[in-house]
Design brief:
Length: about 220
């Protein structure tokens, strides 16, 4: 089986991580989040984490060369698998490099699915997000509250706010999305693999719609 992937595209807070988790739990796809990989490298004190931390904490993108290096290392060590890319690619250069690397490996990119959500919803979601310090599970103080306030349902770890979820940093991340990532919408539309899903609805409905889109589109039907 060749490597296959779909991309979840969307602004910070669009629900990429949440929906990727739901889809992967149901389908056997592997959740591939560059944000999670970078945060794990920071936690471990790895050299790549030390380089990435300064960018992440101020809401800027980590340089493309660093990202492509960690992505392709992970893919090459994973063998044949199906991936949900969350937060990658994020620039046109990353998208073009991914295409070139996938071509070399005979891998296929089935879809780029844009999770669409209004800015007010994003702000509400990100300011209320809480993440488990231990296992990384995601909660929201109002939308997806843990059973016991401040404690992870899965492992009992303490919940904390991400350093880049302060309002000023969120606003900067939204600008960076418009300036550097939004161009990918046209890029994947022109390749005929773009699909759009309304991500302002409850997660179950959003995930169900994404699951219908895992296979490549029939010729000339995407966009
Ligand atoms: P990353 O971790 O990828 O952050 P992001 O793209 O900004 O996205 P978020 O994780 O903030 O949001 P999300 O869309 O996943 O939403 P979530 O599901 O969590 O990247 C962080 C940083 O790393 C970047 O800024 C950059 O510096 C660096 N980086 C990463 N990849 C890079 C790359 N390829 N190139 C360069 N730099 C890179 O949901 C948010 C909240 O809403 C949660 O609390 C959740 O519980 C809640 N929620 C979700 N869905 C729903 C719903 N349907 N209803 C109600 N609440 C919901």
């Amino acid at each position: 089986m060749p490597i296959q992937a779909i991309i979840l595209l969307g602004a910070p807070g669009a629900g990429k991580g949440t929906i990727a988790d739901d889809v992967c739990r149901e389908t056997g796809y592997i959740h591939f989040s560059t944000g999670d990989m970078l945060r794990a490298a920071i936690k471990q004190g790895a050299p790549v984490g030390r380089q990435a931390e300064q960018y992440i904490n101020r809401g800027a993108l980590v340089p493309d060369n660093l990202i492509i290096e960690i992505v392709m290392q992970r893919i090459d060590s994973g063998g044949a698998a199906k991936y949900v890319f969350d937060g990658f690619p994020r620039t046109l250069d990353q998208a073009r490099l991914l295409d070139a690397e996938f071509k070399k490996r005979g891998a296929s990119l089935n879809r780029a699915i844009l999770l669409e959500v209004a800015k007010e919803v994003v702000l509400q979601r990100l300011t209320g997000r809480r993440v488990c310090r231990n296992c990384g599970a995601n909660f929201h103080v109002h939308n997806i509250p843990p059973k016991k306030s401040g404690i992870c349902d899965h492992c009992g770890g303490a919940l904390e706010q991400r350093p880049d979820d302060m309002e000023a940093t969120i606003l900067h991340r939204l600008e960076v999305f418009q300036q550097q990532t939004a161009a990918l919408i046209a890029y994947y539309k022109s390749r005929g693999i773009l699909a759009r899903v309304d991500s302002s609805r409850p997660r179950k409905q959003t995930a169900a719609d994404v699951m219908k889109l895992l296979e490549p589109p029939p010729a000339s039907s995407a966009g």
